[in-house]
């Protein structure tokens, strides 16, 4: 299974390389080769329990697929913005690619360093790949860009030491690289933009995303340290939690946003949300869907109470939420992507805040949330946090957030790139859902080395092709320009990756589909 997963990642890396064919795509190929060897060192460390931190069990390290996401995103972003003539974002893509490669190299050196006996061949490969990448960075990055890349690496090192210690068994090494690498990059971008604020420069909705991500992470770190010294389950601690959340929100996050967007964030948000009648209709519709999702949670818990204390939600029951998310995102993508962008940011902040309430047992809802959400746990929620619903939201939202609007003057990219914002809907909302439902009900032929079925994967590919056809019918901005073969190949590769990966597919699949469509 690991070999097939690696083969699929190699095919996608080589596909991007064939399209781009520059020094950075060559570096991506070199990184993929050394990451393939390092992945086995990480797997061995996990099996022997010799890794530095406690990582999630029942999965391999996932180092190769995770290490290629940020470099490939940077490479395709650079190429798209170069074609559009947007120099600033072309340089930004180079920084993203260089940062991803350096973070992956750091984890490679860490794995090689703690493996006993020292793996000579892997050391040589890592040294060669590192030399090629550093040489390319030396001749491609300015001094300020090199400093920026090193800043992200420094933030990543400290953030990893803190969060992997505080949250054992929540991540595999690959997931840690993907999640903590992304958070480190966002934090560095926020610091950089806060120190270089120019009035009128930058889109306020981008600043909302940066501040929301950094704000919820800092909030979690603050309360984690605080509740080391006091019991979080008492009423006094709970009142202090809510009070300090309000103080940090109104006293730190709001002024920070005010400095970045040069206007009152709350007034701007209210004006933005109710600017048009279409937005009002979408908000009412989304409120109804949110209430429906809550209804599913309560209904399933009443079934548990009446049937058995050990009752767990089935795979099909969990996929109800995928259908609800698809129904949420598709109208937003068709009618108002900016509103969807902001709504997803606000939803992420609410989800993370509610997870803090559940994790710290904050009264009056902490214990209730623990009881309600325990029904939907699966083997991936082996740590103290429940992250699968947050990963689902991220998987659907990242293609919307990472869409290069500045490099798409007409609001959409040509060819297959027009489907980039729909990557989450196609890969997770349609593909993963259909594969799980049909595979569990009608699947008989299993893929070698996995529990996934041939029937589930083929049905998922077919369903995504139908979804692309429906998008063409209902979204007039999408024009594929006869790039159907590339779309079919991209969907097929990502669906096969879903069958073989043991990582969080809600997070990994949309990113790879986005990379392939942008290429």
From TrEMBL:
It is a multi-pass membrane protein. It is found in: Endoplasmic reticulum membrane. The chain crosses the membrane at residues 7-37, 57-77, 89-112, 118-137, 149-167, 207-228, 240-258, 278-299, 320-335, 341-361, 382-403, 415-438, 459-478, 484-501. Coiled coil: none annotated. It comes from the Eukaryota. GO terms for cellular component: endoplasmic reticulum membrane. Keywords: Endoplasmic reticulum, Kinase, Membrane, Transferase, Transmembrane, Transmembrane helix. GO terms for molecular function: dolichol kinase activity. GO terms for biological process: dolichyl monophosphate biosynthetic process. Its EC number is 2.7.1.108. Its main location: endoplasmic reticulum. Belongs to the polyprenol kinase family. This is dolichol kinase. It comes from Melanocharis versteri.
């Amino acid at each position: 299974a690991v070999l097939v997963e690696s083969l699929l990642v190699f095919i996608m890396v080589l596909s991007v390389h064939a399209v781009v064919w520059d020094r950075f795509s060559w570096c991506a190929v070199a990184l993929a080769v050394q990451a393939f060897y390092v992945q086995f060192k990480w797997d061995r460390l996990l099996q022997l329990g010799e890794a530095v931190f406690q990582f999630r069990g029942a999965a391999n390290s996932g180092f190769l697929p995770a290490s290629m996401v940020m470099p490939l995103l940077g490479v395709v972003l650079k190429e798209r913005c170069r074609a559009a003539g947007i120099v600033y974002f072309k340089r930004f893509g180079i920084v993203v690619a260089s940062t991803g490669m350096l973070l992956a190299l750091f984890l490679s050196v860490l794995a090689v360093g703690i493996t006993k006996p020292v793996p000579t061949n892997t050391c040589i490969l890592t040294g060669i790949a590192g030399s090629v990448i550093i040489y390319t960075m030396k001749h491609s990055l300015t001094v300020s860009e090199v400093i920026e890349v090193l800043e992200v690496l420094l933030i990543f090192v400290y953030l990893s030491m803190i969060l992997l210690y505080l949250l054992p068994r929540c991540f595999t090494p690959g997931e840690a690289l993907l999640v903590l690498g992304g958070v480190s990059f966002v934090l560095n971008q926020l610091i950089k933009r806060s120190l270089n604020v120019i009035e009128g420069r930058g889109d306020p909705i981008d600043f909302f995303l940066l501040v929301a991500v950094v704000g919820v992470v800092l909030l979690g770190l603050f309360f984690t340290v605080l509740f080391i010294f006091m019991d979080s389950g008492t009423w006094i601690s709970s009142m202090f939690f809510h009070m300090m959340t309000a103080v940090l929100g109104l006293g730190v996050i709001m002024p920070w946003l005010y400095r970045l967007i040069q206007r009152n964030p709350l007034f701007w948000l209210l004006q933005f949300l109710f600017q048009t009648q279409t937005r009002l209709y979408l908000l009412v519709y989304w409120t109804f869907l949110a209430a429906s999702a809550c209804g599913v949670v309560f209904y399933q818990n009443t079934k548990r109470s009446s049937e058995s204390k050990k009752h767990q939600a089935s795979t099909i029951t969990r996929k109800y939420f995928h259908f609800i998310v698809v129904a949420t995102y598709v109208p937003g993508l068709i009618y108002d992507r900016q509103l969807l962008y902001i709504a997803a940011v606000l939803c992420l902040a609410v989800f993370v805040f509610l997870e803090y309430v559940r994790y710290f047992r904050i009264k009056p809802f902490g214990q209730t949330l623990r009881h309600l959400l325990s029904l939907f746990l699966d083997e991936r929620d082996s740590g103290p946090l429940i992250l699968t619903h947050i990963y689902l939201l991220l998987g659907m939202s990242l293609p919307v957030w990472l869409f290069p609007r500045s490099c798409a003057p007409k609001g959409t990219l040509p060819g297959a790139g027009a489907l980039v914002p729909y990557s989450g809907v196609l890969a997770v909302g349609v593909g993963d859902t259909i594969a799980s439902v049909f595979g569990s009900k009608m699947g008989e032929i299993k893929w070698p080395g996995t529990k996934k079925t041939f029937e589930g994967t083929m049905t998922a590919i077919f369903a995504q092709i139908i979804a692309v056809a429906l998008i063409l019918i209902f979204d007039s901005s999408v024009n594929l320009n006869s790039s159907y073969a590339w779309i079919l190949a991209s969907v097929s590769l990502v669906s096969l990756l879903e069958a073989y990966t043991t990582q969080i597919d809600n997070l990994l699949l949309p990113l790879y589909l986005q990379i392939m469509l942008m290429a």
